[in-house]
Design brief:
Length: about 220
């Protein structure tokens, strides 16, 4: 009977360890661009949105390299006659031309990680090809180096190919296309619901299970 009880306990511990070490979703601050609250569009900055906004490339004027937070219903009316669908929450973010945003995100586990976001081409402009990085590594999406939504009215989910990360904090950045000249046509992509999924290394799970089972068996032998 004691042996049977020990086996059940071991199985319970393995199940618990598996649940603890399963895929975990972590979020940057303000992942859905819900602040600052707006009924139209407002420029996003680190002070009001938790995202640091950086610019790079030509010096063609602030308008050409802005990160805007927009009321989703307002943006849908302004850019598609009210036809957009599929966003989450009340607000979204427009990445215009070479806008660039970043944020340090904690909670990574050692092992594979993916980044997901919703994206749509902002009607009236060509889609802005977005480069997504973790630290200095460019993420790929089904083998492609950018997120470039096609024409359409529904936000689509983009999930990066897995990349192995160390445990701790890493910088997530999203950057638009650098315009070659001031006169070049604008590009714009609207994004929402940014998240990161981390999966611990199998070796970490094995060590956890081995340690817990060893402790259990030691306690069982002591009771005998």
């Amino acid at each position: 009977m004691k042996r049977f009880t020990c086996v059940l306990a071991v199985l319970a511990i393995v199940g618990l360890a598996a649940s603890i070490a399963s895929a975990s979703t972590i979020y940057p601050l303000n992942p859905g661009f819900e602040t600052p609250d707006t009924t139209g569009a407002v420029e996003g900055t680190a002070a009001n949105s938790s995202w640091t906004s950086l610019y790079s490339g030509d010096a063609s004027g602030d308008y050409n390299r802005k990160f805007y937070i927009m009321d989703a219903a307002w943006a849908s009316g302004a850019y598609s006659g009210g036809s957009w669908s599929g966003w989450v929450g009340d607000q979204v973010a427009q990445m215009l031309n070479h806008a660039s945003i970043n944020q340090d995100v904690g909670g990574f586990l050692a092992g594979p990680a993916t980044v997901s976001l919703l994206a749509i081409k902002t009607s009236g402009n060509a889609a802005n090809p977005l480069t997504v990085k973790l630290d200095d590594t460019v993420l790929t999406f089904s083998g492609l180096n950018t997120v470039t939504p096609p024409a359409g009215y529904a936000f689509a989910l983009y999930t990066s190919d897995p990349i192995t990360m160390t445990a701790g904090t890493h910088r997530l950045s999203i950057t638009g296309l650098v315009k070659a000249t001031f006169g070049e046509a604008d590009t714009s992509t609207t994004i929402d619901a940014v998240s990161i999924t981390t999966i611990p290394e199998p070796s970490a799970l094995a060590l956890l299970v081995t340690g817990l089972v060893g402790l259990l068996c030691y306690a069982w032998r002591k009771r005998k």
